[in-house]
Amino acid sequence: MRDIEAYKQKLMRAKKNSMCDCTISKTSWTTSRAPIPRNAQSSAKTMKCSKGLGNAGKVELEQIEHALTRIKNGTFGVCVACGEEISDKRLDAIPYATKCKDCM
Ligand SMILES: [Zn+2]
After folding, report:
1. Where are the alpha helices (DSSP H) in 22-54?
2. In which domain, by residue range, is 56 found?
3. What is the tally of structural domains in the chain?
4. How far is the CA of 14 from the centre of ligand 1 (A)?
């Protein structure tokens, strides 16, 4: 029996890591310089948006989202090309893998 929940946790963590860290920097701002002036708060927001994600991060995030959808649908861990189960070893290395090692 495959421990889907463990992969889900892994994906959620990976998702958090690949997202923009603005929330984190905002938090450190809050702790280091309180109180935050109203205008400073809005300028921090602008910085967040212009920063964005790198292309690689964006692609990875999409794959992670896709994998989470597959968990919801119950198709997680099944190769999209041949329908065979993807090995645990492969999923441990890449939890958002959609193809088995034979089809990639
Ligand atoms: Zn396959």
Report:
1. 22-32, 38-51
2. 4-103
3. 1
4. 24
Helix (H, G, I), strand (E, B) or coil at 82: coil
> What spacing in Å lies between the alpha carbon of 73 and ligand 1's midpoint?
18
Placement of tokens 């992670």 in the chain: 64
pLDDT at 95 over 70: yes
E strands, the chain, where? none
- Write out the two tokens for 55: 């292309």
Residues in the chain: 104
pLDDT of residue 64: 95
CATH of residue 10:
1.20.120.910
Identity of the amino acid at 9: Q
Residue 74 C-alpha to ligand 1 middle, in angstroms? Answer: 17
Distance 95 CA to ligand 1 centre (A): 15
Of 20-29, 52-61, 68-77, which one has max mean pLDDT? Answer: 68-77
